[in-house]
Write a structure and sequence with these properties.
alpha+beta; Alpha-Beta Plaits; 2 domains; 5-stranded antiparallel β-sheet; about 60% helix
Length: about 170
């Protein structure tokens, strides 16, 4: 491959990394063509970009993007890059897809999610349980609304009780 071609591919990888806020490094070797097609379809449905990359080119792209040295040791053997704007979507897909086939692949090598590094396949359950930014905002809004709802509920129930007492007294 010519140096110009390599530089172009590195630039495309950097652009993809800039476009998405989270990425996963996976090993999808050993998947049949049908399973690979199914995985790509599932990625497309979940708004995940799935790209098979050369390790040296990905390493150069990561070096240009910032300090990702914790992931460099994972760039051995076949590597597929999964890019997403939802932190836990690729983890859920990986877990579901690997469980549903006999090969048990793809396997998580590592990930960069919510500005943290996750190294090893044992981190998959932790990544599945990570909440997205929108889910966290929803939880906070719910927590903030809860006391206000309790006060309103107490005032409304007190109003009906007070109305009942006044009605009873007026009837006597």
């Amino acid at each position: 491959m010519k140096k110009e071609d390599k530089n172009l591919i590195i630039e495309q990888i950097v652009n993809s990394l800039n476009e998405y806020s989270h990425f996963y490094l996976t090993d999808a070797a050993g998947l049949t063509a049908d399973l690979t097609s199914d995985l790509r379809r599932a990625c497309f449905k979940n708004e995940i970009k799935f790209v098979v990359v050369k390790n040296t080119l990905l390493k150069r792209a990561l070096e240009q993007k910032g300090d990702f040295s914790q992931l460099y040791s994972l760039l051995e053997g076949p590597t597929a890059l999964m890019l997403s704007n939802t932190g836990n979507a690729p983890a859920k897909l990986l877990k579901e897809f690997a469980k549903g086939n006999k090969v048990g692949k793809p396997v998580l090598k590592g990930a960069f999610v919510e500005e943290s590094f996750y190294v090893g396949a044992d981190q998959l359950d932790a990544l599945v349980s990570i909440k997205s930014k929108n889910e966290l905002i929803g939880d906070i809004v719910t927590l903030l609304q809860s006391p206000a709802k309790n006060v309103i509920s107490a005032l409304q129930s007190g109003g009906t009780t007070l109305h009942g007492v006044l009605k009873t007294l007026s009837e006597k």
